[in-house]
Amino acid sequence: MLNGAMRGAFLFLLGAATTVLFRRSQAKRTVWQLDPYKCVQCNRCATECVLKPSAVKCVQVYPMCGYCKLCTGYFEPEPVSLDTGAENQLCPTGAIKRRALEDPYYEYTIDEPRCIGCAKCVKGCVLFGNGSFFLQVRHDRCVNCDECAIAIACPAQAFQRVPADKPYLMKDREHQA
Amino acid sequence: MRAKGSSKLQTPNFRATPDPKPLMEGSRFWKLKLFHCFAGVAAGLALLALPLAAHGVERFPPPEFDPGYKMPATTVPAARAELLSYVDVAVLVAALALASYLALMKRSRDGLLALSVFSLLYFGFYQKGCVCAIGSVQDAALAVFNSGYVVPLTTLAFFLLPLVFAAFFGRTFCAAVCPMGAIQDLALLKPVKTPSWLDSALGVLPFVYLGAGILFAATGSAFIICEYDPFVALFRRSGSYGMIALGAAFLIVGIFIGRPYCRFLCPYGALLGLVSRFAKWNVTLSPMDCLHCQICDTACPYGAIADPMLKDPHPNPHRRTRRLIALAALLPLLVVLGGWFGGRLSVPFSRMHATVSLAEQIAAEDAGKPGEPTDASKAFRQTGRPVEELYAEALRVRGGFAIGSRWFGAFVGLVIGATLISVSAPRKQSVYDPDPADCVSCGRCYIHCPKEIVRVKRIAGKNVIPLTPVRGG
Ligand code: SF4
Ligand code: SF4
Ligand code: SF4
Ligand code: SF4
Ligand code: SF4
User: Fold this and answer.
1) Residue B412 near residue B334 (C-beta atoms within 8 A)
2) Ligand minimally distant from the alpha carbon of residue B177
3) Is residue B356 domain-shared with residue B379, that is, in the same domain?
4) ipTM score
5) This prediction's pTM
6) Cβ contacts of residue A112 below 8 Å, gap of 6+?
7) Residues B178 and B327 in one domain
8) CA dihedral angle for residue B290, residue B294, residue B297, residue B299, rounded to 10 degrees
C-alpha cells in the first residue's frame, strides 16, 4: 500500500534525522548569557527582553568596586549634591542602594527587583569608574527562550549560550588590569 | 522572584549609617588609603577625552578593608532545573497520547475541548509558549547545518514527537496539544467559510514560511518563526506593542475565520499536514454509509471536509488531462525559475544576518558614505577587531545564503507547482470525509454527522430510528 510505504519512508527519514540531531544534542544544556566585556550599554537589554521588566539586571562585583564617594554609576554627571536625592541619581528606578561606610567610602548594592537593566549605571561606571557594575542575564528570571530576543537586537553581539551549570560571565579584577 | 541575599547584607563590624550623614568617627575600622575618591574622579574626568576601553579600567583601587568587613557576594541564581524540562516532555507525550485517543477512538469533541484548555494553560500560559514544536523546526535546521550548535534534548523531543504521532494518528497535536491551535480553536465563535480556492492559494504560505524559517535558521541569521510568533506575547503577558497587536489581530480574525495562523501560516502545521497524508489512522466519518447530507462540510470551520466532487468541475476530461500535462511540464520550470529568483534575493536576504549587515555598515562608513554610525558599528570599532576579519566572515555567510536562497526559491516553485496540480487533479472519493492534510482533528464534525450521532446512541444502548428518508406529511 502506497500510504504504508510513504509512512515507512518518512519514519526512516525521521529516524536518520534523529540520529544526526541526537548526536548534536549530547553536550550539556545551555542558557543565554551576555559577555560584559563586549556590552556597549545600549539600553536594548531593558527594552528587548520578552519579559517586562527584563531578565537582564545590573550586578555589582564588590571586589572590583572602588567604593567611591562620587560614584559615576550612581550620580548624575553633575549632581546637585552628593546624596540619595532622586534628582541626583542616574538610575531611573532608584535601584541602587548607597550605604556609607568609613569616609570617604560607600558601598553600592543593586536592589534587583527594581532594576530594569537599562545599563545607565553601567555606562557611568565603565566610563569613569572601575566597571564593577555590569549587566548579566539573571537566571532566576530568564525563561531561556529558544532564541533570546535581546541576542538578536544586541549591537555588540554580546550574547552567547553558556553551559547551564556555569550560567554567568562575571567580570573580575584580573581581567580589568 | 526576588534575588536572594543581594540587598540583605551582614555587616557586624562597622556601623552603617543612613545617607546623607557621612561617617565621622571610627577610622580605626578602616585602613584609610591616601587615595581620595573625589580627587580620583577629577582625574578620571580629565582622562575622559581619551578613548577608553569599553569595559573600563581600575581607576580607583578598592579600599583595603578591615578584616571585619564582610564584603557582600554577588548572587548567582541557578538556571532553571533540568528536571523540569523533562517534565515538559512527559506532559507532551501524555497529552499527545490522550489527544489521539480522544480524537480517533473516543471520538469526543468535549474531551478534546477540555484537553485544549489544559494545553493552553500548561504549554501556553504556564510555560509561556516556549519551548514549542513550531519553533523547534529552526533548532533542528540550525543543528543540521551547523555542527557547532547544540540542540537541547527537550527541544528535539518537541520537534520529533508530534511528527511521529502524526505518522500514526494524523494531526492530533493540532487538535488539543498545541497551545496556539488551542487558543484559536477557542476563539472561533462565529465561523465563516472561506472559499476553497482561497484556502488552496493561502495554503502555499505555510510552506513558504517553513522554507524561510529554515533558510534563516540554517544560516544562523535569525529565528523568524519565534520572532513573529503571534501569541507568545499573550502567553507571557508582555512583549512589544507590535507583537501584542499582531496577537490581538489574529484572535479577532480568528473569531470568524477558523485558525488563521494554523491554516495560512504555521510552518509546523505544514509539516504535520504532509505527514498526516500518510498516517495509519485519521479522523474519518462514516465512509461506508455516507448520506451526502453535507452537514459535516458545514460543521467543519477549517474547510477540511473533502468534497467528493460528485459533479466533475471539468466536464471535458480531455481538457483536464491536457491541463494536467501542461502543469506537470510547468513544474520543473517553476522550480528553476524559483531557484533563479531565490539566487537574486540572496544578497538582500543575507542582510538578516548581523555579521553581514554590520560589515555593510562598516564598509559604507569607511567609504565615507553619509550617515550616522550605528550602535553596532560603534561596538565593533571598540573591539579593535580588524575589518578584514569581519569582511571574510560576512563573505562566508553570504556564500551560505547564495546556496540556501536558491534552494529556498526552488522549494517555493515546487510548492506552487504542486498546489496547482493538486487542485486540478481529479478526486476519486465518493463520500464526504476529512482531508487528512487539512483536518486538525478538532472533532466538530463528529457531533454533527447524523450517522455518527446514531452510532453513538446505539453504543449507549438508546433506541434509534434507522436513517431512511421519510416521505409523506
Ligand atoms: S543589548 Fe548588548 S550592548 Fe546593549 S546593553 Fe544589552 S548586552 Fe549591552
Ligand atoms: S541604572 Fe539601569 S541597570 Fe543600573 S541599576 Fe538602575 S535600572 Fe539597573
Ligand atoms: S532568553 Fe528570553 S528571557 Fe532570557 S534574557 Fe533573553 S529574551 Fe530575556
Ligand atoms: S497548525 Fe501549527 S499552530 Fe496550529 S495547532 Fe498545528 S502546530 Fe499548532
Ligand atoms: S475533525 Fe472534522 S470538523 Fe475538525 S477539522 Fe477535521 S474535518 Fe474539520
Assistant:
1) no
2) 4
3) yes
4) 0.78
5) 0.82
6) A57, A95, A138, B2, B3, B6, B7
7) no
8) -100
